[in-house]
Design brief:
single chain; 239 residues; mainly alpha
Length: 239
């Protein structure tokens, strides 16, 4: 066995190794992202995934064992999501003034996100199982996996698509909004949060507090709308 592979086999028995690998990979990705002038194509989450894969694949590392060690980071997703309430609270007056357009935009955005994914996959000849896996792609991972499973989809495929959706949305969302001449930070944040969940919201927070607040509320409400409406619409269409 290659010496590097032997070293990783030894280290992966400790949860600290997986946690350290995750943190180092993200810090390296974030450093590259910042030094590139925040190039949207060099998203730190994407770079971290590639760096972790570059360690696990050559060494024959087991993903399940890696995930067991990195579960603390997974646990922190909960507090991180709750922390999004802080910018939302600071912009509560702005949110109240835009309740009607906000609700309408979320409803349309939620249905569009699911409808376009399912429609394009259906035109490409995807199976029903794959369609069910793609439908909740724009909501946060735990909700998306639960919805996909209830529809008869593959939660593992859904998780991968959700992460890809977030990365693509964070990378291409701002330039697309610029091309569409959408300047209002409320609309920009709402679009980022609805289309690309947590990763898009992290990008929206870099655009400003107002955009971050509206992206934060979009995550929660889009997840709620998808969890309630999508199973009903799926049974109506599939039935």
């Amino acid at each position: 066995m290659d010496p590097v592979a032997q070293l990783w086999v030894y280290l992966e028995t400790s949860p600290l190794a997986a946690l350290t690998l995750t943190l180092v990979a993200y810090l390296a990705g974030d450093t590259i992202y910042r030094r590139s002038g925040r190039n949207p194509l060099l998203n730190p989450v994407l770079l971290a995934i590639l760096l972790i894969a570059a360690v696990l694949l050559p060494t024959g590392g087991d993903y399940e064992r890696y995930f067991e060690g990195a579960q603390f980071v997974h646990f922190l997703l909960g507090p991180a999501t709750v922390a999004l309430a802080i910018p939302l609270y600071k912009e509560l007056a702005n949110v109240r003034r835009a309740l009607v357009p906000l609700a309408a935009s979320l409803l349309v955005g939620s249905l569009t996100a699911a409808g376009t994914a399912v429609g394009l996959a259906w035109l490409a000849g995807a199976s029903t199982e794959t369609l069910a896996s793609l439908a909740p792609k724009s909501v946060t991972t735990p909700v998306a996996m639960g919805v996909a499973e209830s529809l008869g989809g593959l939660p593992s495929l859904t998780a991968a698509v959700v992460i890809l959706t977030g990365i693509v949305g964070a990378a291409l969302g701002p330039p697309v909004l610029d091309l569409a001449r959408i300047r209002d930070p409320r609309a920009r944040g709402l679009a980022m949060g609805t289309a690309s969940h947590g990763i898009g919201t992290a990008r929206a927070l870099q655009m400003g507090q107002v955009a971050g607040a509206f992206a934060g509320i979009a995550i929660g409400l889009n997840a709620l709308a998808t969890a309630v409406l999508l199973p009903l619409l799926w049974r109506l269409v599939a039935g």
